[in-house]
Amino acid sequence: MTVTIEARDVTFSFGETQALRGASLAVEAGEIVAVMGPSGSGKSTLLHCLAGILVPDSGEVRFGDVRLDTLGEAERSALRRDRFGFVFQFGQLVPELTAAENVALPLLLGGVRRGPALRSARAWFERLGLGGLEHRRSGELSGGQAQRVALARGLVARPQVLFADEPTGALDSLTGEEVMDLLVDTAREQGTTVVLVTHEPRVAAYADREVVVRDGRVNAPAGVGS
Amino acid sequence: MTVPLTLLGLLEREPSHGYDLKRDYDTFFGRGKPLPYGQVYSTLSRLARDGKVVVSDVEPGAGPDRKRYVITDRGATEVEHWLTEPVEPEPHLQTVLFAKVVLALMLGRPAEEYLDTQRAAHLRRMRELTEVKRAGGLVDVMLADHGLYHLEADLRWIEMAGARLDALRKAVRR
Ligand SMILES: Nc1ncnc2c1ncn2[C@@H]1O[C@H](COP(=O)(O)OP(=O)(O)OP(=O)(O)O)[C@@H](O)[C@H]1O
Ligand SMILES: [Mg+2]
Asked: Which residues cross the membrane (chain A) (predicted)?
């Protein structure tokens, strides 16, 4: 198996606060890894470093053969747009756009023309159980519907890696499971690697394995090679 | 404990042969742990001895598999009672976890490592149950969920124990 995304001995501070203190994590192609750990332990910071949103103070971040930590902002931003997908806790849809336009956004930003982009986007709605809601704006969707739209937006461009930070955090158990079923099914089908931050064990149980972040470091579970 | 009452409950739907009871038990309740025929028939004969079922329609010279069992009033009363009685809340596993953590701390052994190992074991089981859910029908989903919620409760306790280990160490060491 080839390693898709990897952090080696990464440190990162917000001013005085040391959020990461030598965090290492290697995720293989097609793997779904849950990142668990207490609040404030550095999970989101690690995800942002892996995704090239934050640049570590020291250590390395690799995406395949590419060193993300030494790339400039423009190159990282292009990489995020072309290779990565994102889903966050509160969907973060663009309120001015319709649900279908929100899903199409990564394609539009990637240079796909409006017609084909919207056609690809609309194809997601039936499968998400959201048929008929294509023209709603995000304010007119329930939390669970908005989160499914956000998931479709994260996956529509067939990213190599999906970064998900508490994607079910704002949902009830049943809706959360629907979102996770969809996430796992689609990731498997597309061969997408997933880094899934969650503090919920039932969500982590959808992953192939889990790691625990504590005090800015990553612990692989005992008895399992990391 | 629950096998006799579950078989009685199944008999309350309609009089049945032993093999029908076994099939339904395995489908709904056995889940990976089928009931041996021997246990089905020994349970039924004990229920008959205690007057909770009676045998009807014995075909001449027939073996145990040709008997049809019918629930009695006494059996039905017992089922009704059992179904309305709450189960004694018994968090066994938690007690074992608790004993291990406290003893490890008393003996100066690495309780953190034990908790990490236990968390990994729990999550492994939760992954298996999640697979069962994703592959199965609604009955599997509900059964697996019961296990998942219990394991999750243990995990929450494991996180709390991990966060309070230093304080607990002080509290239990002489
Ligand atoms: N923008 C920021 N400015 C200053 N400090 C920050 C910022 N973001 C995070 N931190 C600090 O960095 C540490 C790690 O935060 P991080 O968000 O990575 O934790 P987390 O594990 O994702 O927690 P949670 O489960 O609560 O989301 C914390 O101490 C947090 O207070
Ligand atoms: Mg976070």
From this structure: none
Which pLDDT band holds residue A116 (cuts at 50, 70, 90)?
Answer: very high
Contacts of A191 (CB under 8 A, 6+ apart): A29, A30
Q: Rounded mean pLDDT of chain A?
A: 91
Q: In this structure, which residue's CA is closest to atom 18 in ligand 1?
A: A42
CB under 6 Å to ligand 1: residues? A 14, 17, 19, 37, 39-45, 199
Q: Residue B116: which of A202, A206, A221 has the nearest Cβ? A: A221
Of B149, B152, B145, B157, nearest to B95 by C-alpha is B157
Is the domain defined by A3-219 classed in CATH 3.40.50.2300? no
Q: A38 C-alpha to center of ligand 1: Å?
A: 11
pTM for the structure as a whole = 0.82
Q: What are the domain boundaries of chain B?
A: 3-84, 96-172
CATH number of B3-84: 1.10.10.10
Note the ipTM here.
Answer: 0.82
3-class SS of residue B156 = helix
pLDDT, one tens digit per residue, over A154-192 is 999 999 999 999 998 888 888 889 889 999 999 999 999
